[in-house]
Amino acid sequence: MRTGWALLASLLCAGGSSCSCSSERAPRVDFSHRGPPGTPVARFGGDSISAEELQQRFLEMSPYARARFQTVEQRRDYLEGLVRFELLAQEAVRRGMANDPEVLESTKKVMVQRLLNQELEKTGQAAVSEEDLKAEYERHRSDFQRPEMVRLSHVFLAAPKGDAQRAQKLELARQVLKEAQALNAADFGAFGHLAQQRSEEPRTKPLDGDLRFLTRDELSAQYGAEVLAASDELKAAGDVLPRVVETDAGFHVLKLRARQPALSQSVSEVKVQLESRIHYERRTARMEQLLEELKRRAGYTVDREALAKVVVDLKAPIQQPAGPGPGFLGPPVSGPPPPTVAPPAPRR
Questions:
Q1: What is the rounded average pLDDT for all residues in the chain?
Q2: Which of 158, 219, 248, 291 is least surrounded, with the fewest CB atoms within 10 Å of its CB?
Q3: Hey, what CATH topology would domain 148-261 get?
Q4: Where are the domains of the chain?
Q5: CA dist., res. 170 & res. 181, Å (int)
C-alpha cells in the first residue's frame, strides 16, 4: 500500500503544497486540533481553542441555532462539546489508533475524495462557449428534435388479399378482438400472452405483439396506412381499438401502449442541460487523463497469468471481513450526467 500513499503524496506536492514530501513514504497524519489562531479560551494537552474559532463556528450556524448560545454558560456548553471530542481524539492517538487499519483506510478514502473534488472542480469551472453548446447540441440532436411517435401492440392474422381463407381469418380476428376487450386495459402482459398464442406476425410475436416506438412514417411504411389511421383513434394507453383493422396483408387487433409527442427544442431552450452535459463530459475526460497519468507514473502492470489463477468460488460461504473494506473507484462512465440531486438542508 506504500506505493499508493507515495503517489497521492507526490501528486499533492505537484499541486503546489509547501510540505516536504518524500517519494518513499507518505507524511504522517497530524490529528492535533486545528482552528483559527487567536486568544485561547480553552487549553488542553498542548492544544487550544481560540475565541476567534468559536466566533467563526457560531457564524457558520443559522440564526436560529445561534440563539441557543446567547449566555456565557451556553457558550461554555458548546465549548465543552468541542473539547470532549478533541480529548477523545488525543486519547485515541495515544493508544495507537491512528495506525489502526480501519482509521487509515477511512483517511485514505476521504483523502482520495478530496483529491478528486479538487481536480474535477478545476475542470468544471471552465467556461462553456456558444460553439461548445452548438457542437454538443448537434451530437445529441435526436434528444431535442424528434417527430411524434406511437407505440402499439397487436395481434396479427395473416390473410393476403385473394386468399380463400380471408373471410374465415376475419371472423377469427373478430373473436380475438372480443378476447382482447375482455382483458384489463392496464394488463399489457395479458394482451402480450394473447399475442403469443394467436398472432401470426413473426417480427412482433416474440415481443408479445409489441411494435415498439415508431414515427408515423415508419408505422405506415411497415404496417400500412390503415394501421396508421387506426392508431389516431386510440386516445389513452391501454385502449383496444373496437374494430379489426383490415390491410392487404391481413387483420390487426390493436392496443395503444404509449405516445411520445413531437419534440422541437432550440439550443437556447436547453442551454442549462447542454452545459451540464459538457461539464460532465469534461470531468469524465479529466478523470481518465488523471488515472492514466497515475498508472504511467506508478509503472502499473497486470500479471494476467496470476490473475487467471485467482479463484472466485460462487458456492463458498460468506466469510467475516479480515479488515476494513478496501477503497474502490469504478472506471469513468461516459454518457449523460446523473440526475441532479437536491442540495442539503441548511444547518440549524
A1: 85
A2: 248
A3: Chitinase A; domain 3 (3.10.50)
A4: 31-94, 126-146+264-300+331-339, 148-261
A5: 16
